[in-house]
Amino acid sequence: MRRHSIIARLDPTDKIAVKLHEPHSITTEIRYIDGHHQLGYGLGQLIEQLARRGVFTSDAAVDLALLAATVTAADTRISRETESQDSWTREIDLYMPVLDPTMWTASSRLIERMLNFLTGDRWRVFFRDRWQGCRKIVNRPPELISSPFDCVCLFSGGLDSYVGAIDLLSANKKPLFVSHYWEPSTSTQELCAQRIGSVYGDMAGKHVRARIGFPDDLVTGSAPEKSQRGRSFLFFAMAALAADGLTGAPIIYIPENGLISLNVPLDPLRVGAWSTRTTHPFYMARWDELNSRIGFNASFENPYRFQTKGEMLDGCANQNLVRRHAHETISCSSVTKGRWKGLRMGHCGYCVPCLIRRAAFQRAFGTDPTDYPAMPDLTADRINARAAEGEHIRSFQMMARRLAQKPALARLLVYKSGPLPDYDGTDIVAYAEVFRRGIEEVDAIVHECIVEPS
After folding, report:
1. How many CB atoms lie under 10 A from the CB of residue 409?
2. Are 274 and 172 a contacting pair, CB within 8 Å?
3. What is the tens place of the pLDDT at every residue in 287-318?
């Protein structure tokens, strides 16, 4: 196991020594501003796109974006396999230059808690004053021009964000859509935007896309890491950066169905770090807390937290549009996994997101036009329980049987992936019910699958 220290720097004149809390850790420096005073690694691309749409962000919001980018650098370029004792839990220190180190330091424990919960690693974050030559990074008008947008919405190119975008536009909201692209699974973002734009007006002026990432060899001695458990920290920060340029107290919409948002482990092997927490209610509530602490007026909301994916499809405000083009969205956790079998890129059909997607189409429309090259028919053949194809299907089958025998178990299981707000208990009942209905929805397409050792 090797502890890593990532030191973020701004322009080339920033050469001040940074005192490390772990002097013997592996040190990586990231310099974000080049000799032309441009923010690199995709951050400048995002800020410029926002400005062209009349959205001018502040330097305080840039500090958040720099933090998120540095988290992404560590999360994607420090290998779990070689850099941790247990092939998972890494120990990472971040050293960040900010405008107001006192304010940020007061929130450092909250940020560490968020990152630990999200990724399963052990993070520490340290803040220092920006180098004097970089007190100002962005030029914001002294008085904000009234923006044409009244909210922000993440737009991934997935099915949930597609429904979320349609619903917002159908409700006459004026959202600014924010996307991050990197992997092949994000290639559908522009196509989805075109489909929506054909009905609700050209999306070009209300959609920003940025490619924020780092070279594979950024961290000496470490291969890249593919798990990307921390990716939503970057996505949320990008949305917050955009919302900072809007007037009032804008809502940042994160469209995600309740089953995947809770992401309750389907079996004991998926507890903890193996269960992603990208939009978990506890994590989203911590973002609202962080926003409040650092003086941002925006708040995060998942309007579908109590709906299954099938219910989202069935309730979409524009049924004609969603029925015609929803199959063009991408849900699969890895659309390229079939290449080693000589298959074309596409949905595998058997990972957890694919199974939830298949069930949603079946529930809402009675048919699923999505192309599943690796497994077009779930019931055509016996499925090997020891292979990846059978693992998730069997897990859903077993969970469905447990809940059928003991429905009340759902109220306990929803706590498995993390704490939940408990107020007067109504939310807990709603979370338990969406989990139960979500499992039933998937069971409708997998209960007849024959999964056995081969």
Report:
1. 16
2. no
3. 999 999 999 999 999 999 999 999 999 999 99
- C-alpha closest to that of 149 among 177, 171, 179: 177
- The residue with tokens 């959609």 is 207
Q: At 92, is the secondary structure helix, strand, or coil?
A: strand
Kindly report the pTM of this predicted structure: 0.95
Question: What per-residue confidence (pLDDT) applies to 271?
Answer: 45
Q: For the chain, what's the residue count?
A: 454
C-alpha pair distances (Å), 217 with each of 73, 74, 77, 214, 220:
11, 12, 8, 8, 6
Alpha-carbon dihedral sign for residues 449, 312, 399, 274: positive
Measured CA to CA, the distance from residue 326 to residue 50 in angstroms comes to 27
Three-state SS string across 6-35, please?
A: EEEECCCCCCCCCCCCCCCCEEEEEECECC
The answer to whether the CB of 261 falls within 8 A of the CB of 276 is: no
Task: Specify the residue for token string 């998937």.
Answer: 442
Contacts of 107 (CB under 8 A, 6+ apart): 290, 293, 294
d(CA 183, CA 214): 13
Q: Which amino acid appears at position 205 of this protein?
A: G
In the structure encoding, which two tokens stand for residue 441, read together? Answer: 């929805």
**Where would I find the beta strands (DSSP E) of 281-337?**
299-301
**pLDDT by residue (tens digit) across 182-224?**
876 677 999 999 999 999 999 999 999 999 999 999 999 999 9
Angle between helix axes 43-52 and 231-243 (nearest 10 degrees) is 30
Q: Are the C-beta atoms of 37 and 138 separated by less than 8 Å?
A: no
Q: Give 301's strand partners.
A: 253
Amino acid (one-letter) located at 444: A
Residue found by looking up tokens 């996307």 in the block: 179
Query: Do 41 and 212 meet the contact criterion of CB atoms below 8 Å apart?
Result: yes
Q: Collapsing DSSP states into helix, strand and coil, what is residue 228? A: coil
Query: Contact at 8 Å (CB) between 152 and 178?
Result: yes
User: Are the CB atoms for 115 and 90 separated by under 8 Å?
Assistant: no
Sign of torsion, CA 82 87 88 92? negative
- 444, 377 in Cβ contact below 8 A? no
Burial of 6 (0-12, 13-18, 19+ CB in 10 A): buried
